[in-house]
Amino acid sequence: MEPISVNLQNQTSIESNVVQSLRLLERCSKMVEIKQIHARLYKTGLIGEPNAVSRHLASTASPDFGSLTYVRKVFDEISRPNTFMWNTMIRGYSNSNEPEAALLLYHQMLCHSVPHNAYTFPFLLKACSTLSALEETQQIHAHIIKTGFGLDVYATNSLLHVYAISGCIKSAHLLFERLLERDIVSWNSMIDGYAKFGRLEMAFEFFKNMPVKNVVSWTAMISGFVGAGLNKEALNLFCEMLIAGVKPDKVALGISLSACAHLGALDQGRWIHAYIAKNGIKIDRILGCVLIDMYGKCGDMEEALEVFTKLEKRGTSEWTTIINGFAIHGQAQEALDLFVQMNKAGIKPNLITFTAILTACSHAGLVDDGKSMFKSMTTVYRLNPTIEHYGCMVDLLGRAGLLMEAKDLIEKMPLKPNAAIWGALLNACWIHGHLELGKQIGKILLEIDPGHGGRYIHLARIHAAAGEWDQAVEVRSQMKHRGVSKLPGCSSISLNGIVHEFSAGDGCHPQMEKIYWMWNQITEKLRQEGYKPATGDLLLDLYDEEKERAIQYHSEKLAIAFGIISTRPQTTIRIVKNLRVCEDCHIVTKLISKIYSRDIIVRDRTRFHHFKNGKCSCRDYW
DNA sequence: CTAGGGTTAG
Questions:
Q1: I want to staple A172 with a disulfide (CB 3.0 to 4.6 A). Which of A163, A491, A503, A562 is the partner?
Q2: Contact A394, A361 (CB under 8 A)
Q3: pLDDT digit string (tens) for A172-227?
Q4: Contact (CB, 8 A) for A603 and A297
Q5: How far apart are CA A190 and CA A507, in angstroms?
């Protein structure tokens, strides 16, 4: 920052002085300097110049400056703020963490009979959209029409956006139909509105029919797929976008990377990372997090760490993401070490950081560490544990066999236990054979979460293990009766940029015959090693032939068989599964890793298993 | 001035 040396003595050159001051203002980056200039505006009388004051407000109210209180003070001193100044303040608050203030200001603006201009409504409606303030939006809608801005494309697009984003997609659609002038933004808002609420067919209808698409149109659609869990479709669309010759920007790349993360599509993730590097796209905070997360969720912690280390700035999110990476890999010590380093670096952990840390302790069975971290949340970091944190603790204690302690925690916690809490306890009961308690909890779960198929299966299993076949069958038929279906198990493997998906007993894959042949080969070798199927799950399904077949061909088994025939010997096989690995598959995969000398990395619904030479990184604790 | 983004975990 150069010293401020504006010659203010000569009254005739006051205009050029204003201009010069304004230039300085725009270059200002520190609050102190802004305040200095403000003081100078006062001293020199320039404070009476609406232009100078306006610019001063504008640069101070920009999102780069956190402190709106200061701007507000300046604003409040102005006797008759003009429209520009009101707009500036509304814009400031619409981008802040108190957007309500924007609405209040607008109200005051009306009271003072200050006229609007075309810039007033977009700012104001932005505040409405973050607040999902529909009533206010309707009032503003009326004002827009009354004051003759009903044909202004910025005002109407802003309206359209609020309606679309706040779940009033019908109003948005109606408005869209009535618009005389629609531009690409109008279309994109419709796509985003429908996509965000899971109405992908409608979103796609708009996407398909719009006259010209830009990168935002594609991204809104891709993001809709990701939001609906259709990550494969999201990636396909990303590829189509490239083929259509639309250059992806950081937003498109980020959302596609998160699709890769969900899918465990390492190759595609690497490709996007390389694209970012090749095109000189700056890795901002979000891209940094997504990259770390992608590598972590795709099983490559070395690369995740590499990205993390190379980042210019590391904030809470970046640390949290890398810690979570180690957590899901069962590398609790690394996670805990990073937590210490994070503290040393002066970065404050947040609630999500603690979820990651507690997950790490839980997966590794570090009961004492977990307990002390949980305690430190309130005592050291002043964070109130949420239901997720209690869930982690119940899981941690229950998994370690401390069922009574887990139950005790549930009874004493200040929050109402939800399905996830009981689910964690039920799982613990199952692992440690506490069948009586398991049955009680299973019943609770069926009541509070009647649409979740997995709960029925769990309870039925427990009945079966207790030898209560009638009741096991009863639970299953209850499930059928209520029309609840089990989430089908699905495993995927990514090869040469193509994600292959398998579901249990699947016959869909073009190479299915070969895959089943390979699986039979594998079973033969397993038998020679003395393997016998873990039949716990099988017995329950005896009454249902189709399911029995499905269990023999669990989706991950098919994916592994496909992996072995489709890759060179020694190549690591990476599988992603949407459910937890069952005991039988875990045993089998360990054996396969030894017999075929293959590293097999399986990502479960909650964690990674690295199978190597007959052993698994989870040390059979999962 | 209006439109698309991430980290928990279900």
A1: A163
A2: no
A3: 999 999 998 899 999 999 999 999 999 999 999 999 999 999 999 999 999 999 99
A4: yes
A5: 38
Q: Which nucleotides of B are covered by protein (CB under 7 A)?
A: 1-10
A197 touches strand B (CB under 7 A): no
**DSSP for A529-565, written as a single string:** TT-----HHHHHTTT-HHHHHHHHT-HHHHHHHHHHH
Among A279, A299, A390, A184, smallest CA distance to A572 is for A299
Q: Which of residues 442-481 of A touch strand B (CB under 7 A)?
A: none
Pairing mode, strands A600-603 and A573-577: parallel
- Amino acid of residue A107: H
> In which residue are the tokens 């990184």 written?
A617
Round to a whole number and report the distance in Å from the CA of A306 to the C1' of B4: 28
> CA-based angle A305:A310:A314, to the nearest 5?
85
Q: Which amino acid is at A403?
A: L
Q: Is the pLDDT of residue A487 over 90?
A: no
Q: What is the DSSP letter of A12?
A: G
In tens, the pLDDT along A547-575 reads 545 556 788 889 999 999 999 999 999 99
Query: What is d(CA A190, CA A407) in angstroms, rounded to the nearest whole number?
Result: 48
Q: Which of A77, A138, A72 is nearest to A105 (CA)?
A: A72
End-to-end Cα distance, chain A: 57
Residue located via tokens 């904030």:
A315
**Strand nucleotide closest to residue A160 (CA to C1'):** B2
Left if phi > 0, otherwise alpha if psi is -120 to 50, otherwise beta: which for A264?
A: left
pLDDT at A577: 93
Side chain identity, residue A361: C
> Residue A599 carries which DSSP code?
-
